[in-house]
């Protein structure tokens, strides 16, 4: 079995596409893949979002507004995840669909409606999204992303818990690289690393291989 940490923007359509494909892949491998959606915010990710919207020039005010929006959406996603990973994934995908696909502006009202639709415990959700504990969790996740070398989204870090192999960081062609990792996992005689990869020493991972 191996585990995938998928770092995502809860407001991004590209992340939604990867999430859906990864869930399909997990079904194919019959629970041999255990994955987590990890919502996070970074300055580079925010700039990428503005570029996707066709904005090559933007003000500090625009950056701050998008950061606050992404921050609030991330806290909402984390609050949903407290009610189970499946509920958390469902909330993130629903929010991405509402904002990135349907082009609705994120708001507390939209997040609340999604929470109701997927049948979250509303008292817990409305309380958890505003707690200091949730804010500390946000900071902890941000630090984990830094430690794992995450700079943009979507990015995936994959661990094989059946061996002593190190974590792999995939920033491009995520689904294809995870499938190749799975194949390599079944063929222990082959340890050749893919081309155009390099090693990085991280504080929490012995070695990361960037692809």
Question: Which structural traits does this protein have?
Answer:
disordered C terminus, six-stranded mixed sheet, 211 residues, globular, 6 strands, 8 helices, Glutaredoxin, alpha/beta, 53% helix
Describe the model.
The model is unreliable at 189-211 (pLDDT under 50). The protein has a six-stranded mixed sheet with strand order 2-1-3-4-6-5. β1 (2-8), α1 and β2 (33-39) form a beta-alpha-beta unit. The protein is of the alpha/beta class and 211 residues long. The longest helix is centred in the middle third of the chain and has 22 residues, at 60-81. It contains eight helices and six strands, in the order βαβααααααββαββ. It has a single domain (1-211), classed as Glutaredoxin. The chain has helices at 13-28, 43-52, 60-81, 85-101, 108-117, 122-128, 132-147, 174-186, and strands at 2-8, 33-39, 155-160, 168-170, 198-200, 208-210.
Give the topology, please.
Elements: E1 2-8, H1 13-28, E2 33-39, H2 43-52, H3 60-81, H4 85-101, H5 108-117, H6 122-128, H7 132-147, E3 155-160, E4 168-170, H8 174-186, E5 198-200, E6 208-210
Parallel strand pairs: 1-2, 4-6
Antiparallel strand pairs: 1-3, 3-4, 5-6
Distance between the termini: 21 Å
Helix content: 40-55%
The poorly predicted ranges are: 189-211
What is the N-to-C order of secondary-structure elements (H for helix, E for strand)? EHEHHHHHHEEHEE
CATH architecture: 3-Layer(aba) Sandwich
Strand order of the largest sheet: 2-1-3-4-6-5
Strand composition percent: 5-15%
* Overall outline: globular
In the residues, how many domains can be counted? 1
Mind telling me the C-alpha Rg?
A: 18 Å
Structural class call reads alpha/beta
Summed over residues and divided by their number, the pLDDT gives a mean of 81
Which fold name is given in CATH as the topology? Glutaredoxin
The CATH homologous superfamily is termed Glutaredoxin
Strand count, sense and barrel status of the largest sheet are: 6 strands, mixed
Q: What is the count of helical runs?
A: 8
Number of separate strands: 6
Q: What is the highest CATH level, the class?
A: Alpha Beta
């Amino acid at each position: 079995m191996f585990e995938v940490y998928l770092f995502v923007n809860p407001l991004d359509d590209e992340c939604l596409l990867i999430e859906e494909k990864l869930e399909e892949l997990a079904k194919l491998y019959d629970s041999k893949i255990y994955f987590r959606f990890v919502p996070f915010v970074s300055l580079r990710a925010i700039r990428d979002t503005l570029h996707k919207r066709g904005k090559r020039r933007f003000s500090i005010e625009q950056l701050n507004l998008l950061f606050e929006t992404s921050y609030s959406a991330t806290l909402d996603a984390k609050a949903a995840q407290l009610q189970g990973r499946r509920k958390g994934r469902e909330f993130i995908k629903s929010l991405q669909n509402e904002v990135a696909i349907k082009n609705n502006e994120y708001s507390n009202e939209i997040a609340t409606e999604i929470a109701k639709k997927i049948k979250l415990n509303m008292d817990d959700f409305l309380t958890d999204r505003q707690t200091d504990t949730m804010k500390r969790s946000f900071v902890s996740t941000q630090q984990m992303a830094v430690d794992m070398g995450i700079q943009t989204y979507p990015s995936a870090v994959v661990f094989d818990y059946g061996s002593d192999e190190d974590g792999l960081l995939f920033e491009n062609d995520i689904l294809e690289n995870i499938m190749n990792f799975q194949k390599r996992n079944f063929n222990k005689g082959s340890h050749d690393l893919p081309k155009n990869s390099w090693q990085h020493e991280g504080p929490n991972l012995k070695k990361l291989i960037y692809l």
